[in-house]
Design brief:
By secondary structure, chain A is an all-alpha fold. Chain A has helices at about 35-55, 60-75, 85-105, 115-125, 135-150, 155-165, 170-175, 180-200. In chain B, strand 12 (about 260-270) and strand 13 form a beta hairpin. Classes of the chains: A mainly alpha, B alpha+beta.
Chain lengths: ~200, ~325
Amino acid sequence: MGMEAMIGSGAPPKEPASPRAGAAVSDGAYPTAQDRVERLFEDQYRQMLRTTYLLLGSREEAEEVTQEAFAKVLGSLFRIRDDERSAAYLRSAAVNLARARLRRRSIWSRKEALYGAGIRASDDEHAAAAQPDRHVETAMANRALAAALRQLPQRQRECVVLRYFTGLSEAETAATMGVSKGSVKTHHSRALDALRLTLKDLS
Amino acid sequence: MNEDDLRRSLHSLASDVEPAPDALVTVRRKTIQKRRLHQGVIGSAIAVVAAIVVLALVVPGASSRHVNVVNPAGRPPGPTSTVPAATSVPRTEPTVTTVPAVATAPQTLPVVACMSVYGAGSAPSAVTFGPTMAASLPVGTAALLSFYTNSTRTITPILGPRGWACQVTIGGDGSTDVQVFPAGGAAPSGSLGTAGTPGIDAMSDSACQGCVYTTVCPFVPSALGQLGYSTQTGFSCSPLPAGTTADFVKGSPTAAGPTVKDIIAFDVPTTPAPTSGLVLYDNHIGQGGSGSASQETCTLPSPQHALCTAILANFTATNWMMNS
């Protein structure tokens, strides 16, 4: 598949990952607040769950962290007037909680639990042999990428996930990670170099 | 392969990660737990500070106790204590609060639906209250007030200053908390010990008899027995904040009967904004039912504090969230 060739050097283009903006607010309060809660959940939960999954490598922990982040944001939602800020707050909360979670465990000692979805997707699919090569190839590529992500330092992994999966700009990534844009550039560059090397080794 | 491939690969890697079926319910439950924990921590911290302040005042001059703590039962202030048996509580004659005559007129106010968290996991579906509602209010106050209810408009609305933020929490046991507070400000905790932050907080306890006891015990020491609990039960009762004054608008601290209905008005001289409040307490034990209680606190800076009169009057008039 030539995984090493997949990494470019330019900044990723911005993807429209943000939710709908401009929640209706009338009478100075929140007549549509419940709608906003439901909508925030509908718009953001799956994306946030997958983001935390890529950061943590564990489906169960991703679910817990995402739920925690939502509970945190829902507790403060009345103070946040627009959905864009809610989503940004949610991202920061999720990344911070994932970071705290990683600090509490030794992620590398639990490799068997990491990226279970990707591994199961390939292992469980015994029919893969009967499927077109593309299916197997995708599963192998996912495993290779999962392994490469595992080896990235935490900040570099956050940078890659937020920029390439969540589709954040450099500034948004910096705000979410709580670092400067310069740091994001550094993490981004190092992460791509490391991924390129790892994927080359794995390919 | 390029950056687009990396992007596609990351999406592919996470593509089969789907939310748990009960994710939204779990999020709601965690939100409620988080809020309660937060309120508990703040309440405890303030209680500790208050206890230290009271000790500082009492200990140096034990012979001249000038601590101005008044409550209907005439109990001295102190740390959280077990309520004595109903028979040992000194009786206090009810005080009838004189309400000055104020010209009122029917007014139509907007009803705001607030962001709501439902502990039971689903929102009540029946729509009861429309976008406006009429109330009899002191002349000149209508433009300053709005009604606030839950997101599905099923909770009896409470009055609050117009244009404020609000949130509603409905517990799995039916307990309800409606909070109205300045936009951008913090929600009031409802705990009397944390009074002083501008906001309106209306709480009802419904099926939770222990919660009913907690709400009314500072005013009705005999509530433990009235609610059918043994006096040996290990329930504790937090004392009223220092300086609190309370009057029984209706009922008395020790009144008992088939159906006891108490209306207790109280004031807490907190700064920067004073707090006024009401407790509604029904005891249906004699009829084989259960007790219920609601409490509303109104904390507004002195210039606007007159609005609390209208807000609390409406709370009483609607017999807010009481069973009868």
